TrEMBL record:
It comes from Pycnonotus jocosus (Red-whiskered bulbul). Mg(2+) binds at residues 8, 10, 179. Gene3D superfamilies: HAD superfamily/HAD-like (3.40.50.1000). Keywords: Hydrolase, Magnesium, Metal-binding. The lineage of its organism: Eukaryota, Metazoa, Chordata, Craniata, Vertebrata. This is PHOP2 phosphatase. Belongs to the HAD-like hydrolase superfamily. PHOSPHO family. Its cofactor is Mg(2+). Pfam families: Put_Phosphatase. GO terms for molecular function: metal ion binding; phosphatase activity. Substrate binds at residues 19, 99. NCBIfam families: DKMTPPase-SF, HAD-SF-IB. The active site is at residues 8, 10.
Amino acid sequence: MKFLLVFDFDHTIIDENSDTWIVKCAPERKLPNGLRNSYQPGHWTEYMGRVFVYLGDNGVKEDEMKRTMTTIPFTAGMIDLLGFIGENKELFDCIIVSDSNTVFIDWILKAADFHKVFDEVFTNPAAFSSAGYLTVQHFHAHHCAKCPKNLCKRKVLQEFLDKQLEQGVSYTQIVYIGDGGNDLCPVMFLKKNDVAMARQGYTLEKKISQLAQSLSPVQCSVLVWSSAMDILSYLKLLIKE
C-alpha cells in the first residue's frame, strides 16, 4: 500500500511565484516596461530567459539570487506537512512537477532541509553559464494543446507512472496538490480513486468547478485546501484506513 503525492511548487509548496520573486534582485526591484511587456502566452520560459539576461547584465550574481530565493515563505502549514511526509516515507512517494526551474527549487528545498522528502523533481533545467548568468531550458517537448509549450504535467505524470510500473511499483491512490491552470491537465488524467487537492481561490479550483457546471466533471475526488494542515489531516486519515 503506497500513495503517490504529486506537488506543484509555486503558490503550493511556497506561498509565492519563484519566478516573479527573483525580480527583487533587479535594480529598484523592478523590470523595465519593455521587458515586462515582452511576455507572450504559453512562452513563460523564454520570457524568464530574458529576465535572467537582464539580471546578469546588471551584475546580479548567483549568491545574491540564492539569498533572495531562500527568503520565500512556505505556504501556511507546509513545513508541518512536509515534515510528516518525511517521517512516513515508507507510505508515500513524493514528486514535484513544476514550471519553475531546477536551481530555484533546489536552493529552496535544501535551505529548509526538505530535499530528501521528494523522490524526484520534474521542472525546467537551469544552470549558471561561465559568465555567471542563469539560463533556463524547456523541460520537454509535447503535443498537448492545453499546456504551455515547455511543460505538460499530464505527460510527466504518465511517464513517471509507466516507469514505476516497469519497476513493479503501483499506487493505491494518487493525491495531486496544486493551484494553477497548468495543473488541470494532469488532474483530468486522474482516476476515480484519486484525489485532486486544489488550493482555495486559485485558478485550478475555479477551472474544476467550471467543468462541473458544464457537466463534464473530473473523474477524481476534489478537495479544496487553504492551509497545508487541510492536506495533512487528509493524509492522516488515509494512512489510518
